[in-house]
Amino acid sequence: MIGTFDYVRVGSIKEGCELLAARNGGAVALAGGTDLLVSIRNTGRSPDLLVDFKDVAQLNRLVTDNDAGAMIGACVPLNVIADNTVINDRFTALAAAARSVGSYQVRNRATLGGNIANASPAADTAPALLVLGASVNVTGKDGTRKIPIDKLFTGVKKTSLRAGEVITDISLPPVGSRARSAFLKKQRVKGHDLAIINMAVSYDPDAEALRVAIGSCAVTPILLPPVNLSENEPIDELAERLNDIAQAAISPIDDIRASAVYRLGLVPVLLSDLLSVLLAPEGGAR
Ligand SMILES: Cc1cc2nc3c(=O)[nH]c(=O)nc-3n(C[C@H](O)[C@H](O)[C@H](O)COP(=O)(O)OP(=O)(O)OC[C@H]3O[C@@H](n4cnc5c(N)ncnc54)[C@H](O)[C@@H]3O)c2cc1C
């Protein structure tokens, strides 16, 4: 049984933000509803008003450009992101992460904005957005601002969004012509399940830049400090070095999906798999 609440479907960001501001914390944004409605049903706690942003045209735009990066509206469904050719080619980790969420039906409703605003430590798109250096554009009653994605997550289900602010879009900076990224997720069952651990890595050989982000292993998804790649460092040595950094940065817990010890043990496995894909895509040494 789901509680009772008012519901308004808005046609513009301004209209929605005004409604959120007017209810003084009693109203929340609704996108696909795949987190929010489940939470209302499970907890029995309903906001006074759900403000449905899913029909706002600006929030449904997905614009890609090889030189300018990508701009993804907060309400773009994850299936649209998973199927987009440029996102697959240039921002591969994000396409793979979007594809890994839930089931096809869930991904038809679930949005990118909702996945990050919900701020689950296990949110699958978060590690991908972290290694791709995404920014989150938000609007509220006081105007607009940009939040770097590594400043968005502040705790379990907590973000740096201010009361009444909504995410309008997520921007991805352009990537170098030889840059690549990948995402992996371990889950209990082959069908849909939240991650025991998820991880994304991006690598730009021209900038010698490598970024790693890990989800489901701390209260927020974690972006590891950048590492300098030494020339011709074998992949297994690099994986070991990154594993040391990762083990110091994360603090997994035991929960219904896995023990902390199991999660810690999966870190070097995923690191090794992702580095092999990105640094030696043809096999052998890099
Ligand atoms: C069966 C099932 C399987 C799932 N599997 C996975 C999985 O494998 N991986 C995973 O990461 N998630 C999973 N989820 C969770 C969920 O589908 C995703 O987190 C989804 O992306 C949430 O998006 P939404 O549009 O449905 O958000 P909603 O439920 O509409 O909103 C979620 C939260 O974000 C807020 N919000 C939404 N949009 C905005 C916005 N633009 N600005 C500010 N706040 C906003 C809402 O107020 C709410 O607090 C699953 C859910 C279900 C029901």
Topology readout:
Layout: E1 6-9, H1 13-22, E2 27-30, H2 36-43, E3 49-52, E4 62-65, E5 69-73, H3 78-83, H4 85-90, H5 92-100, H6 104-109, H7 112-117, H8 125-131, E6 135-140, E7 143-148, E8 153-155, E9 158-159, E10 166-172, E11 180-186, E12 197-204, E13 209-215, E14 222-223, E15 227-228, H9 235-249, H10 260-279
Parallel strand pairs: 1-3, 2-3
Antiparallel strand pairs: 4-5, 5-10, 6-7, 6-10, 8-9, 11-12, 12-13, 13-14, 13-15
Helix pairs in contact: 5-8, 9-10
The site of flavin-adenine dinucleotide has 30 residues, from strand 2, helix 2, helix 6, helix 7 and strand 10.
Distance between the termini: 56 Å
Q: How does CATH name the architecture of the largest domain?
A: 2-Layer Sandwich
Succession of helices and strands:
EHEHEEEHHHHHHEEEEEEEEEEHH
CATH topology descriptor of the largest domain:
Uridine Diphospho-n-acetylenolpyruvylglucosamine Reductase, domain 3
Strand order of the largest sheet: 4-5-10-6-7
Strand content: 15-25%
Question: Describe it for me?
Answer:
This protein has 286 residues and is α+β, with helices and mostly antiparallel strands. The chain has three domains: 6-52, Uridine Diphospho-n-acetylenolpyruvylglucosamine Reductase, domain 2 (2-Layer Sandwich), CATH 3.30.43.10; 57-172, Uridine Diphospho-n-acetylenolpyruvylglucosamine Reductase, domain 3 (2-Layer Sandwich), CATH 3.30.465.10; 187-279, CO dehydrogenase flavoprotein, C-terminal domain (Enolase-like, domain 1). Helix content is 33%, strand content 25%. The protein contains ten helices and 15 strands. The chain has helices spanning 13-22, 36-43, 78-83, 85-90, 92-100, 104-109, 112-117, 125-131, 235-249, 260-279, and strands at residues 6-9, 27-30, 49-52, 62-65, 69-73, 135-140, 143-148, 153-155, 158-159, 166-172, 180-186, 197-204, 209-215, 222-223, 227-228. The strands form four sheets. Strands 4-5-10-6-7 form a five-stranded antiparallel β-sheet. A hairpin with a 2-residue loop joins strand 6 (135-140) and strand 7. It is globular. The structure holds flavin-adenine dinucleotide (FAD). Residues 28-36, 38, 53, 74, 101-102, 106, 109-111, 113-115, 117-118, 122-124, 166-167, 192, 194 line the site of flavin-adenine dinucleotide (FAD).
